[in-house]
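User: hey, got a sec? need Integrase catalytic domain-containing protein folded
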Amino acid sequence: MNLKGLGEETVNHGLFGGNERAQNHQRHNIDLSNVNGNYNCELEILDEKKICSSLPRMNDDNCLKQLKDLCILTSDAMINEKFCLFAKTSGEINWLNGADYAGKLLTGNVKHLSGCLVAVHTHLGWTVMGKSDIKAPLTSS
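Assistant: Yep! Here you go:
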């Protein structure tokens, strides 16, 4: 992204199982805006080469239908069989929002979907949270 660095910060990462590790990160300021350009804010962020492992796109047909009926577009949704609203590849996680900025981005608009899923509106668009009813196939070795 070729961002100008503001310096380095050491963060103590608390991981599952009580593991902790200190890691250095570069600090940057970014101007973040929604795709319509009618909302923007400045955030101080920390870099991370890989935020998380690959996450599958939403494949719950019932949930996708509910979102469509509510006119809710998510970043991994398809319009006319074309993916939209992602950077290089649709499987990439490019930004992970933390609790330090969540309150600044939430609009308070929440739609309850089937099961444990909810669609949450932010100033950047919609996101779906919760546990899906779709079970991944079990594998063993």
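Quick note: The first helix runs from residue 61 to 69. Let me know if you need anything else on Integrase catalytic domain-containing protein.
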